[in-house]
Amino acid sequence: MANYTGKKCFSCGEAFKDGDDIVVCPECGTPYHRECYLKEGKCINDALHESGQSWEQTQESVESENIRCIRCGFENPPDKLFCEKCGTPLTKNDTEERPFNDMDTQNNAQQTGPDGQPYGPFGRQVVFDKDSDLEGIKLDDYAKFVKTNPLIFLSNFIRFGKFGGKISINFAAFLFPHLYFLFRKMNLVGIIMLVATALLNIPTAIEYLSAGTMGFSLDIGIDVTGRVFQGISAATWYVSMALQFVAGFFGNYMYYKFAQKKIREIRSEDGTEQEIAEKIVAKGGTSWGAVILGFAVYSAIVVFGIFGVTKIFA
């Protein structure tokens, strides 16, 4: 039997799910939930019966008109200019210009980001018109500020700016929120996250040390199995996970607003276009030095925190 998962029942309009009891019209092949078909008493797709076409033929026609996003693979309706899932400008074929592309396609093929790399992944050129406006700021300024991985960030920025979304997934921000924000030079957010996550992880670190989970055990004089300590440990773990989820799902949006603020500040200053561009590049980008320093400070807070807690509970 054909796979109808995701297709819609012609009667109720609900999408079929795995395990649904599905029947099809013996004449045109239109699928229904069995209960919907019994309720109707017959196939109600009269247009197909009159035309002599089959339901499969009409579906192939509809699917062939959809535009597949070259970045995430999502099938978009033919009237969409941007991918509904990731915001990437859409094209029906390789030669058609995207809404944010320069008019000169040949020049586009030579366009690269501030790091000298093409905007597209895997050698595929996916470029945006650098003069396109996104909430009062040119995409070229965003690209200069981001510096690394511009395609990923610009696609998210377009989705935030054009469609009003705020949620996207950033695994690095989820796993290491404090280090990620410092890496992206969001120092204030990074410091807040660093101090918060370090303090919240102290009970867990004490528990691991006492249990020998890290390869060695350390008697620090605290009953980690007691109700009070277990309650504190559980509470801090949940709060820490909540911060990670916030960073993981809203980190890209926070970076988008951070980039906006910094670019506007730089643009408000006096200077030539070249000087302003250099400032944008300097203020943006990434900082491995901040990551290393942040890791050292994080470790120090945890270590001193462990000694502090042992004195309190001693």
UniProtKB/TrEMBL annotation:
Keywords: Membrane, Transmembrane, Transmembrane helix. Residues 69-90 form the Zinc-ribbon domain. Residues 94-120 are annotated as: Disordered. The chain crosses the membrane at residues 163-181, 188-206, 235-256, 288-309. The keyword Membrane applies. The keyword NAD does not apply. This is DUF2628 domain-containing protein. Residues 103-114 have a biased composition (Polar residues).
